[in-house]
């Protein structure tokens, strides 16, 4: 049974508390009809996002029935994709296909192979292999995993510009374009396709480079913010959210059904940044499907305190953190709490372990545990 508990978030900055209150929402999507003769909404990236959403849903809910119900249709779509690949296994977009990905003007030119499509397709193959494994479809699993591993090995060598330390937008007739866009570079960080060194380089050469055209939709801005969070740049993310979502116009649009809604805000993606608070600030994510095992890495990002709840299929995890204290309560599941402290921390229960890296610790949390960890930090380390 899916939990009816609602997510919650509160912090020391009332700006973000208000943004949370006016933006809370959810959405579900299922594409297309038989026979499969085109991508979902005639957009390849919509097809790929749908693949990703199915496995992501399973990871967070352990709802195998959802995967089992969707799988026959997923299989038809992925086989359609496989029938439109070149000799290197890269997806080819037909001339009559639309391409969303932030309505990038450069996508009107359909020549060649675009890096962001290959990355999304590659991740789709990986998730299809995972779904096939879950359902015991061994032949499908082996087939999709083989296509995934082949494509995964080719993407970076094919699109990477060593001089500019970034993925180029497209390759036409074997020649890399000079155009650098954010899309594929952000996806490669988000999906962990770069090395750690490459991630830092791309953060500099692309994400924090004002000469690279910025995203226009909240949908793609979410991926960029998530990439920044994964790199530990939480303070930068808060400033971006404060600037982009803290406007009276946006609040009116999201809170009033009668408001004249901007086309970029009239979808659930207008508030997709809410995911970041639970995932990267409260720091809760599933290690095993349905949070049977979880990890918690609460980070302040420059705030004085954070607190909130993350709903689980059979309960919830409550998190509180300030500079000196972490409190965790988990009503189901189990997993590690990870944190840093410049001096030895103390826990109200359990045994704290030293972890990999300087001043890094972890503490195992069991279902039903309510644990407090005191962080005796030096003044220079009280902001994250």
UniProtKB/TrEMBL annotation:
Pfam families this protein is in? Bac_rhamnosid6H
InterPro entries this protein is in? Answer: 6-hairpin_glycosidase_sf, 6hp_glycosidase-like_sf, Bac_rhamnosid6H
**Superkingdom, natural source:** Bacteria
Q: Where is the Alpha-L-rhamnosidase six-hairpin glycosidase domain?
A: 45-206
What is an annotated GO biological process for this record, any one? Answer: carbohydrate metabolic process
Its protein name is Bacterial alpha-L-rhamnosidase
